[in-house]
Write a structure and sequence with these properties.
Layout: H1 2-37, E1 43-49, E2 51-55, E3 58-66, E4 70-74, E5 79-84, E6 91-92, E7 97-101, H2 104-133, H3 138-164, E8 166-168, E9 173-175, E10 185-186, E11 191-197, E12 201-209, E13 220-224, E14 232-239, E15 249-257, E16 268-274, E17 279-284, E18 290-292, E19 295-306, E20 309-318, E21 320-321, E22 334-338, E23 345-347, E24 360-363, H4 367-370
Parallel strand pairs: 1-24
Antiparallel strand pairs: 1-23, 2-17, 3-12, 3-16, 4-11, 5-7, 5-10, 6-9, 7-8, 9-11, 12-15, 13-14, 13-16, 14-15, 17-22, 18-19, 19-20, 21-22
Helix pairs in contact: 2-3
């Protein structure tokens, strides 16, 4: 009896499990049938038609505006200011007195020295006449000449001292801001002003990697000021004789007309340096390029016929991108070296949603994107 009870309980459990399994199986089959009844979802993406454009590889680097003439003036001698000859930020002419230190004591000493020089000159003339008449000695004449030359040297030294206390503009320039006032005492070596020359041209100094050090004097580069500015043409006029041993960069200087833009010395600009001749290149928007562990790829849109219906599916295709140093950093298109052909349609905006074989609902791209040109 006990054995039959256990067998009955086991059979009951098996029947319950079977019933539950059959119920779950029917649910799964129903869900599969319902899923099959729904159409395959299509991802909306923007189409971009691959095309080739004339492109010139270029390198974009940072440049610094440099004045063709500039100087920082300092007083060599200490002294009290008696006159300031220029206003802060004003334009000055070559030879204009910028700062006059007190020279009253030196002027008095110069007047005394000139009187001594005059007396020494009279004594020398008298000694020479006596030597010619035979009444004087050569030794006395030589001593008179030495005293005259010493007096003459003292006059020159005092005149040079006075000149050192008079600061003049070495060239036509614009002075920096200052707070100099008459009566102010200046120690030696005090910075008076920074002069920036007034010239028809300005210089743009920039550095390029040693791999591109073949740029020659006379080459043309483009200067970009700000984001939306038009490029300004400039000519390379000089380059360093050697590559910097620390940065391995070559310093280059270009000349830009001074009236081309409102540029001030010390400002930073972008310099676009051409690296070669123009050539055809395939270009795509950056949104079309997907990067992963296997490299770079794009999704090519291929039309297919499925059950009598025309559909579009995305096919993943590896591509080779241009090196970063050759890419035009000022544009919104990426250069493709290999993997695409002109006229193929690829997914641009929305490509991040795709997988290989995804069903696609293509949309036309913004025509302004199609008209962009790289490297021009």
């Amino acid at each position: 009896m006990k054995f039959l009870s256990w067998v009955g309980a086991i059979l009951a459990c098996v029947l319950v499990a079977a019933a539950l399994g059959l119920y779950k199986y029917n649910e799964i089959q129903t869900a599969i049938a319902m899923g099959a009844a729904f159409p395959e979802p299509a991802e909306a993406v923007e189409i971009y038609v691959v095309k080739s454009v004339q492109r010139r590889p270029s390198l974009s680097v940072t440049g610094e505006v440099v004045a063709t003439q500039s100087a920082t003036l300092q007083n060599e001698l200490a002294g009290r200011i008696v006159r300031v000859g220029f206003a802060p930020g004003a334009q000055v002419a070559a030879g204009q007195v910028l700062l006059q230190l007190d020279i009253s004591q030196e002027q008095a000493q110069l007047a005394e020295a000139r009187a001594d020089q005059k007396i020494a000159r009279l004594a020398l003339d008298r000694a020479q006449r006596l030597v010619k008449s035979g009444a004087g000695s050569v030794e006395t004449r030589d001593q008179a000449r030495a005293q005259f030359e010493a007096a003459q040297a003292r006059v020159a030294a005092l005149a040079a001292l006075i000149e050192k206390k008079t600061l003049r503009a070495p060239f036509d320039a614009i002075g920096s801001l200052h707070q100099l006032e008459a009566g102010q005492f200046l120690d030696s070596g005090t910075e008076i002003t920074r002069l920036v020359g007034v010239a028809e041209h300005i210089w743009i100094d920039f550095s390029i990697p040693q791999d591109n050090a073949s740029i020659q004097v006379g080459s043309q580069v483009q200067i970009l000021v700000g984001e939306a500015s038009e490029p300004l043409p400039a000519q390379v006029i000089a380059r360093d004789a050697a590559v910097n041993v620390r940065s391995r960069n070559l310093r280059v200087r270009a000349r830009l007309p001074g009236d081309s833009a409102d540029l001030l010395p010390g400002m930073l600009v972008r310099v676009k340096v051409p690296l070669g001749e123009e050539s055809l290149a395939m270009v795509v928007p950056p949104t079309a390029v997907r990067r992963d562990a296997t490299g770079s790829s794009v999704y090519v849109l291929e039309p297919v016929n499925e059950n009598g219906q025309q559909k579009v599916r995305a096919r993943k295709r590896p591509v080779t991108l241009a090196e970063v140093r050759e890419a035009d950093l000022q544009q919104d298109l990426v250069v493709i070296l290999d993997g695409l052909s002109e006229g193929e349609e690829i997914a641009a905006i929305g490509a991040f949603k795709l997988r290989d074989g995804s069903l696609v609902n293509p949309m036309q791209a913004d025509p302004t994107v199609m008209e962009r040109v790289v490297g021009r």
